# Entry
Amino acid sequence: TFRTTVIFFRKNSMTELSPYHEDQELDNNTSDNIHFRDILEQHISRRSLITKTASGAVALTLASTLTGCNDDDNNSSNNGGTPPTPVDPNKKPEKLNFSPVAKNLNDIVTVPEGYEATVLYALGDSINPAYGAWDDNNIPSGLSFEYRSGDCHDGMTFFGLNSSTQRYDANVSERGLLVMNHEYINPTFLHPKGPTKVDGRRPEDEVIREVNAHGVSVIEIKKDKTSQKVEVVKNSVFNRRITGSTVMDFAGAAAGSTLLATAYSPAARQTRGTHNNCGNGYTPWGTYLTTEENFIGYFARNKGDDLKRTKSEIIALNRYGLKEGSSSRYGWETVKAGVLSQDLYDRWNADVKAETAGNDYRNAPNTFGWMVEIDPFDGRQNPVKRTSLGRFAHEDCRTSRVIAGENLAFYMGDDSRGEYIYKFVSDAKWDPKDINGGYAAGDKYMNAGKLYVAKFNNDGTGQWIELAFGKNGLNQSNSVYPFSSQADVVTFARLAADAVGATKMDRPEWCAVNPENGEVYVTLTNNSNRGTSYPTDAANPRNYEDKYAGTKTNKGNVNGHIIRLRETADKTTAESFNWDIYLFGAEASGAANINLSGLTDNNDLSSPDGMWFDPRGVLWIQTDDGAYTDVTNCMMLAALPGQVGDGAKATTSNGTETLVGKKVTDETLRRFLVGPKECEITGVTMTPDYKAIFINVQHPGEDSADYASPSSNWPATQTNPSNKTARPRSATVVITRKDGGVIAG
Ligand code: FEO
Ligand code: CA
Ligand code: CA
# Structure
């Protein structure tokens, strides 16, 4: 997540302060949704919860999921030579046995003994032989970034590539497409001397570089079967950058709606670009899902624009954080074009300027905030914004277990303080014949379906409330915002969720689905305002104080938690569920009513964010933290969780009752990796043989005062720890075992 509160632009030798503040987009839920304290306090009985949970029998039917999980005896990864370790890679390990990595503040990626971390793909690296290698002292042109790695690597998925079909193959580990997000940019190090402004305008080449450094990378990689060494195939025809300017199509409920009409596409069928791509997902048919998170901060809207807007438009703009007088994060709208069309820059100003929406960019903000589908194997067709899944600060999208004949569910978070957890359930039932069906399969499963938002009750039960025009009060007579169509409901999903009384959560980030039982895990990273503007409740139960570096005091839900839910009868179509809190982030030394999961020095963590169940059932948890970084850099842990209801009732330090999962041990939660200085660890995927795991290091050295005084020199430090001059760059890291064995096996 973007955490810098202000952006500095260099102007001649002066530094100009941009008035952009992240709170514009982080804290906009002023709805008066019912809080749990308004709901009748219900007695929480551990026994009743377990009984309910057990009634939905644990379904151990492991469907053939995207990244493998196959029980195919001919699995190529099991052939050819003696395996270095006597481990069945398709089996979940009984306990974690790698050596836990100690908390540290080193400027390097630290991995367990016997493991090796190698930098694979860093900001600016070329993906086309016609473009040279990155050079700190010779920053390449903005346009060249159409063929270079973007910045701020985030969500990421490995897709096996079948050499005969040239399509997706869940069993292939030696050749594949690695697809990843570039969430935003660190302008300080992206440009030769940091970002500049001349007479109030951003220079065009800088803005082209910034727009192109956003989006998604598709890169082919190959892995040596014996050494497990991974390399980027620089001349692959699959290598491709999708940027903040790439043409995209709309599909689903809002496609063609006047709400999405712009001068670029008055018929509301297309837009240009995707940005702030944070968490990710993948579909069972072999496509990538990228999420548009903090999109709203890219737009400016001047004072006086409200006078030209309807009451409903103003309510919707404010609810998404674009109040009149908002400045944009990077000032892209200020460019005077010389190389590209002026229209590419003008679109970042959302003011009403013309008679109709089809002649200006008043609706440009409505064309972002969606779930975007990309077929990495098909570079000819445009990516598709799947509008039926709703518009909000999308973070991650996890598909339910893939079971033939069952509806697919897609679980999603809206990462802002007090925002909601959603799911979309396809009308179509899964048919394995759709594997490799590309965008046509996307049309089948992601356009028609039901969008829901979650409500968590204090007693460990919960409801999915449908967001459908004409249902649950979502109609013209709604008192806050009159809804007139399903396009209206999905485009302003936050307002619809407010209206039906969804539960305000502590910043929902990634979602993960346990392959063993279908349970859904959601990271709730933290919420400094929990206990103040957002009262505590059983699902968001902590409000406490924690000292940072002996000086600052953090408040609210300082360290975050991971909630999990189990659908009633294990059906993706269920409209109710049971839940508990799998894990509370905390410092190991924290009081027992704060450190409720019993974390120790081997596994304590703060601000869980990235999270993924590998197909064996190992849960990987990553942090994007600012509360424990006085003690340790951000990290990744491995976990072997139980199930909803395996713990007990608990009371937090602020007296709120909750349901906490079984306490963890060193064998069920263990620190696997610690990143370099001032980074977040995000994005996690593996080859289907479990012998290579990929992670992203985002924004190392993000607190550097200036391009000339970097506070991190990673990734150069990974091979030369004494380097004190290199620019910090976000990068993908591949981790393998020195003996070529299975990761965490
Ligand atoms: Fe981009 Fe919510 O992290
Ligand atoms: Ca994130
Ligand atoms: Ca502390």
